[in-house]
Amino acid sequence: MIIENREEAGRILAEALRDKIRTEERPLILAIPRGGIPVAYTLAKELRIPMSIVVVRKLGLPWNEEAGFGAIDSDGVTYLDEELVSYAKLGADDINEVAKRELEELRIRERKFLPKGYPDLRGRTVIIVDDGIATGYTAIASAGFAKRKGAGKVIVAVPVCPEGSAKRFKGYADEFYCHHQAGGISFAVGMFYRDFHQLSDEEAMGYIESAKKMGLFEP
């Protein structure tokens, strides 16, 4: 399966979620930046429900930042792949050093994307959206953050993921939806997109500003 771009991914998710969302639950879409923002923007437009941003950061191995061993959320809570941590022989000092660095970057992105802070999540249905997941730890961190902030229900919704991803979200999300679950040894989200260019901060902010003009961005 090939998706044209992230906006098409948003339309795909909109069709899947249309009957799951109830206005009385005050639904809110939370996009994981940057790739999740155009997906969430299109989803918000299609379903006419507001969106916002949840900033989390992947924790990468000290010698290979692209290889994630977990993620960190805005409260500084870490979500770790314990098996990989053990295999890589990462000690507490190693983890804390990476977490401290990523939390500093997280704060920079919060100031950029959420200058007014996070919206009130208490009692609401929160839909965590990204352009796809591989290990899933940034989405897990996002779901954990939403739950801790009082969300009534947390749904994680992505267009593509590896087979078996749903089990990773038990205890974090109430529901998990993935449009296309792919088998095979190798998996990369970009494999399933015709256009999977790296979004710049300027592009991401463009979607946010458009959502604001339509009254579809909180706060």
Tally of structural domains: 2
How is the largest sheet built, in terms of strand order? 2-1-6-7-8
Shape, principal axes of CA atoms: globular
CATH-derived topology of the largest domain: Rossmann fold
Largest sheet: 5 strands, parallel
Stretches where pLDDT is under 50 for at least 5 consecutive residues are: none
Quick check: average pLDDT?
96
How many strand units? 8
Order of helices and strands: HEHEEEEHHEHEEH
Structural class computed from helices and strand pairing:
alpha/beta
CATH architecture of the largest domain: 3-Layer(aba) Sandwich
Radius of gyration, rounded? 16 Å
Task: Break the fold down into its secondary structure elements and pairings.
Elements (H helix, E strand, L loop, with lengths): L5 H12 L10 E4 L4 H12 L3 E3 L3 E5 L2 E9 L5 E3 L1 H6 L4 H22 L11 E5 L7 H12 L4 E10 L12 E8 L18 H13 L6
Parallel strand pairs: 1-2, 1-6, 6-7, 7-8
Antiparallel strand pairs: 3-4, 4-5
Helix pairs in contact: 1-2, 2-6
Which features would summarize this protein structure in a list?
alpha/beta; Rossmann fold; 2 domains; 5-stranded parallel sheet; 3-stranded antiparallel sheet; 8 strands; 35% helix; globular
Plain-language structure description:
The chain is α/β, with parallel strands linked by helices. The protein has two domains: 6-55 and 120-213, Rossmann fold, CATH 3.40.50.2020; 58-111, no CATH class. Helix content is 35%, strand content 21%. The protein has six helices and eight strands. It has helices at residues 6-17, 36-47, 82-87, 92-113, 137-148, 201-213, and strands at residues 28-31, 51-53, 57-61, 64-72, 78-80, 125-129, 153-162, 175-182. The strands form two sheets. A five-stranded parallel sheet has the order 2-1-6-7-8, sandwiched between helices. It has a three-stranded antiparallel sheet with strand order 3-4-5. It is globular and about 50 Å long. The model has no long low-confidence stretch (mean pLDDT 96).
